[in-house]
Amino acid sequence: MNAAFSYLDAAQAILERIRSTQMDRIETAADICARTITRGGLVHLFGTGHSRMFVEEMFPRHGSFPGFHPIVELSLTYHNAVVGANGQRQAMFLEHIPGFAQVILRNFVFAEPDSFIVFSNSGVNEVIIEFALEVKRMGLPLIAVVSLDHCLNVAPKHASGQRLPDIADVTIDNCTPAGDAMVRVAGLDDPIGPGSTIGAATVTNALKCLLAEKLTAAGQPPLVLTSSYFIGADESTRRFEAVYDDYRARVQRVYGCR
Questions:
Q1: What DSSP designation does 225 have?
Q2: For residue 175, how many other CB atoms are within 10 A of its CB?
């Protein structure tokens, strides 16, 4: 079996673990999000590093809908440059700066019935922990998506000694093995092929689909950003504008606008 098949097998194992162990937690998280959105609140999304991908996977993209508020800090997530100005070294350094999370959160206005989802494969870096602690200080529900195998097998980095699952109301395991890389190649010392993208994206979309079902059952079917493949080019363009107008109206409050 070549390494590509080994990766596919490892990815399939992640999907099976999510299906067999995480669906109750995904259901609980969907209930929290449904309660937020049906009452006119926002589900705020945050992630650093590569975890920003799952913020964008939730919204905005085709097959998603308003009700979420992505918070993506460019200084923590800009990977294109790698080195030089805005390089990866700086982003990784900033993840460990005490107080940075409070500076980020100060830009927004949060209130009940808002809730939060924080994505972090490791669940231990300082900015993530301080973000989570600030959410709980505000008394708002917090959902975490992490690799429990990794998170519980590395030392906490925040001064409080806490990991993200210690703070969150609900923790969903992305079911990725510790270390993330999953494939061993003969003659190569280090494993390759990270799995957290598979796991966290699966959790994100399973949660999104279940939430859409709950909102529809509650009489508030979401306004879905839909491909022209399904509804034609003209209607897709109209839907795009309607979704973004709806989103703008929902988020005015978090930017202090009325």
A1: B
A2: 25
Angle at 177 between CA 124 and CA 141, to 5 degrees: 45
Query: Taking all residues of the chain, what is their mean pLDDT, rounded to a whole number?
Result: 95
Q: What is the rounded distance in angstroms from the CA atom of residue 90 to the CA atom of residue 116?
A: 26
Note the pTM of the prediction, 2 decimals: 0.95
Q: Is the pLDDT of residue 133 over 90?
A: yes
The answer as to CATH 3.40.50.10490 being correct for domain 3-223 is: yes
Q: Are 83 and 89 in contact (CB under 8 A)?
A: yes
Contact 145, 174 (CB under 8 A): yes
The answer to whether residue 232 scores a pLDDT higher than 90 is yes
| pLDDT tens sequence across 146-155 | 999 999 999 9
For residue 224, the SS3 value is coil
Return the higher-pLDDT residue of 29 and 88.
Answer: 29
Q: How far apart are CA 108 and CA 98, in angstroms?
A: 19
Burial of 231 (0-12, 13-18, 19+ CB in 10 A): middle
Cβ atoms of residues 111 and 38 within 8 Å: no
Please give the pLDDT value at position 258: 60
At residue 81, the pLDDT reads 83
H/E element, 44? strand 43-47
Q: Is the dihedral of CA 222, 227, 230, 235 positive or negative?
A: positive
Q: How many CA atoms lie within 13 A of 215 on its CB side?
A: 24
Residue with tokens 């494969």: 121
Instruction: Provide the residue ranges of all domains of the chain, joining segments of one domain with +.
Output: 3-223
Question: Residue 64 pLDDT > 90, yes or no?
Answer: yes
What is the residue whose two structure tokens read 């999370």? 101
